Amino acid sequence: MAIIEGExxxxxxxxxxxxxxxxxxxxxxxxxxxxxxxxxYAHCVLNIKIKYNALRRAKIQLEKIDYQIxxxxxxxxxxxxxxxxxxxxxxxxxxxxxxxxxRELNSLVKIWKKFEHKYTREEINSLQxxxxxxxxxxxxxxxxxxxxxxxxxxxxxxxxxxxxxxxxLDHIRNIEQNYLEEGDKxxxxxxxxxxxxxxxxxxxxxxxxDIPTTIQRKxxxxxxxxxxxxxxxxAMEFLKDGADLLFIMEDDTFxxxxxxxxxxxxxKQGKKAVGGWYPKRQxxxxxxxxxxxxxxxxxLTADGEVHEVKTLPMGCVLYTAECFYKTTHPxxxxxxxxxxxxxxxxxxxxxxxxxxxxTSIRCKHIDRVxxxxxx
Length: 375
Hints:
Helices cover 50% and strands 16% of the residues. With 375 residues, the protein is α/β, with parallel strands linked by helices. It folds into 3 domains: 7-123; 127-165; 184-374, Alpha-Beta Complex (Spore Coat Polysaccharide Biosynthesis Protein SpsA, Chain A), CATH 3.90.550.40. The strands form 3 sheets. Strands 2-1-3-9-5-10-8 form a 7-stranded mixed sheet, with helices on both faces. Strands 4-11-12 form a 3-stranded antiparallel sheet, with no helix packed on it. β6 (290-293) and β7 form a beta hairpin. α6 runs antiparallel to α7. The radius of gyration is 29 Å and the shape is elongated. The mean pLDDT is 85.
């Protein structure tokens, strides 16, 4: 007798869905959460072992339940009937759990097969220093992004591996060392553009921009959000990606093709935030960058030189990761007084980071509605 209407169909659905963790969860949040390849491999194998032994135990448990049911049925009394019927529910649950475990095991084995190198215990042990350096640094930087300071536990962990309380400085030193020793091949840049709608046919503002092939790059389009939300999303994606440089372009700003190369030269000279020059979209000819002259705010004139600025507009700008490690979320806020770039510029100044505009890098600024070009 069915307990509820459509019981057989529901039981079938339960069987179809049996799997505690999805394939995606296993790949990205169980195995993929670890910072290095060898530790992802180790945790993949560890989870395979756990599931394999769980299935072996489940097989024994099923045999035990079947034996108990058989013995209870032989007794033939009513009380024994209640007991073996209860055991049948245990059996169904055990079968369902075994099915879910088998699906997880199959998923984990597929992930294991993708590893090009099968690590030994000795190899994993020898690489532990690199793993814990990356993991604790990431945890400390997560603290900084979330609360503006490193939590006690991660401070102690940094001390245990001989690092200070500012993991972003180690990141900077690593980048400097990579550059000196191996050129640009270890440098990674995220190129980001925020748009109202999803870009489906590419982004014209990025067309023709030359980024050296020695530099790793990732393109990211954030769309359908308010201005501040979009740039906060870009910043968080940049930090999660672990890139070294964030190159932001606005979709109404069109720079020269060598813009990245020229901005990157400034970064290699030690600057942390530098942008190109472009005019406002208005009849009066003024640049968008703001400087201080005799204590007064003035718009920067394009004289072909590089200037330290008070406000660095985000139409064409290259940031180092340090700009975000040394500030806190939210990085971008729009208020009645400040635009999102003015807000972030203020946070950078308070963090002791200087901003620059290279006025020899002249960008076109286009009115999206009229199509008029300002340059």
